[in-house]
Every structure is written in C-alpha cells, then in structure tokens.
Amino acid sequence: MSQSPWEPRQDPLEQAFRLAAKKIKSNGGPPKKLIMLIVVAVLLLIGGKSAFYEVDTEETGVLLRLGKSIGTAAPGLHMKLPFGIDQVYLVKTGRVLKEEFGFRTENAGVRTTYSNQKFSEESLTLTGDLNVSDVEWIVQYQIIDPEKFLFNIADPRATIRDLSEAVVRRVVGNSNVAQVLTTERADLALKVEDGLQSILNSYDIGIRIVTVKFQDVNPPEQVKAAFNEVNEAEQQKESLIFQAREQYNREVPKARGVASSRILEAEGYALQRVNRARGEAERFNAMVTEYKKSPEVTRQRLFLETMDKVLPQIEELYVIDTKNAGVLPLLPLRKDIATGGAR
Known about the structure:
343 residues; alpha+beta; Tetrahydropterin Synthase, Chain A; four-stranded antiparallel sheet; 10 helices; elongated
C-alpha cells in the first residue's frame, strides 16, 4: 500500500497528560493547590510545545483554525495557536507520488522485486476486438494545490485509482489487441494521461499527472506464443526498414554528389569551349581587319607564322630550284642536332 500523501499533526504530550490525570484521580488525589500548579505547568508545557510545528522540505503545511483553512506554510519552523485551536496538515507537494496497477513493488531498494499474483482484477482488460489483455501500468502525479487536495474530495488517492482504471479500460477498449501489444503502446499511454488529467481538472482537486506508463502488456496464456511470434515479426520488420533507410541515406547522397560533380565538370568544359571559340573568333576578326589594311604584309606574316609552326615538326628539308628543276642536297641538320650534333 502506498503511504498517504498527507497526515495530521498529533501531540504525544497531550495524551500523556490525560493518562496521568486519570491515574491521580483513581488514587484519591493530592492537594488542590499542587494539582493546580501541576495542571498550569503541564498546560504551559503543552501550549509551548503545540505552538510550534515544522514543515519538511518536500511538504507544504495547510493551517486550519477552528476547522477553517487560513493559509499554507512553506518548509521550515513555524508558530500556531496551541491547544488544538490551530491544526496543521502536511501534504507532500514536493514529491512525485506513484500508483501501481496490476502489480505492486516489494522490497524497493537494491534488490527491488515485483508481485502481480493477486491483482488480476486490475490488469485484465478487454480490447476493442473482444480480446483479453493483461495490462500493467503506473500513474505518477504531483499535488500542486494542497488545500484543494485535502478539502475538495473525500479520498483523493482512491479517486485517482478509480479514474485511472476507468480511463485505461476506455482507451484500451477502443483499440485492437495488436495496437495494445505492439506498436502503439506509447500513444495509448499519452491518451490515458490526457484523459485522466482532463477529468481531474474538472474535479478541481489540485493534482497534476506527471506521466502514465504501461509497464508490461501480455496476451492471455493460451495465445501467448502466437503473440510472441507476431512481436518478433514486427521487430524484424522494423529492423529491415531501418536497414533499408540506412542504405538509402548512404547511397542516395553519394549518387547525388557524383551527379553534381559530373554536371559541374560538364558546365566547366562547356564554358571553356565557349570561351576558346570566342577567343578564336575575336582573333580571326582582328586578323581580317589587319588583312584589309595591308593584304600583302598580312599574307606574308601569316605564311611565316605558319611555316614557323610547321617546319620544327619536319625531320628532313628539301629545297627545289624551280629554274634547274632539280633537288638541291641539304645536310640533314635536324637529324644531327637530334643525335647530338652535326658531323
């Protein structure tokens, strides 16, 4: 059982005083003056003791005066009217409280164990396709308004548990068993959280739902093996989808990079050819302009420039005398130069 998030402040000295008074009365009683002195001393002691109260760091104190709330107290040491005129209720507002359904935590600590032997009435839930599923879940909540939590409803903890069961059965009842057991458990938990918070807000009891989480969802024992196979198939499907996406993310950017590189190379080559063609056209136009100014000189210059490019590529030279119609022998100077000098 979960510890109650609130508890009244009780004074043990008051109880001891009542027991002592009964004992003295049963023995015939001492003198009246002594009794009065003892009573006054005890009252002063009780009053001084009951005039102070302490609020822990995770708590908020709700102060009542003659049964009516007069405010709250922050953590620390405070004063109040003694003799039961003021009462203090300590509410654990700084702690996230938890309710468990379908199981209970036992021996919480280093070796935490769980028990679900006697809670089947909480966990067995009918799905929308008329299948039975064993659902275990937790609800974590926090008290944000201690006065509303104490006085707006008789039993807040029981209310939270009843509403949680109702909302879970409604959400699970609107879903099929495959959704509950496999892929949509997180979405269903969010729907439960939203629905539960909406109802609690309408009740105005000062509670905020922190989270709702399905701990374990199992099919009935008779069909458990078949559902396990379905889960394995779903996991394998997700794994293959993940691998395909990984391959896609690796290959597609690579192909796009190669395509962009080829396009840039083609654009560069096209720009180079266009620029070269424009340069050749401008050079030709300039040559035509010079040729029009002095045709003979330009023709001679072009002939000489052409021969200057062609002759270095010829290995042997022959000079023909047009008058004698013969071939003048020339030394193969270029061969000698290529082999190391003339001989």
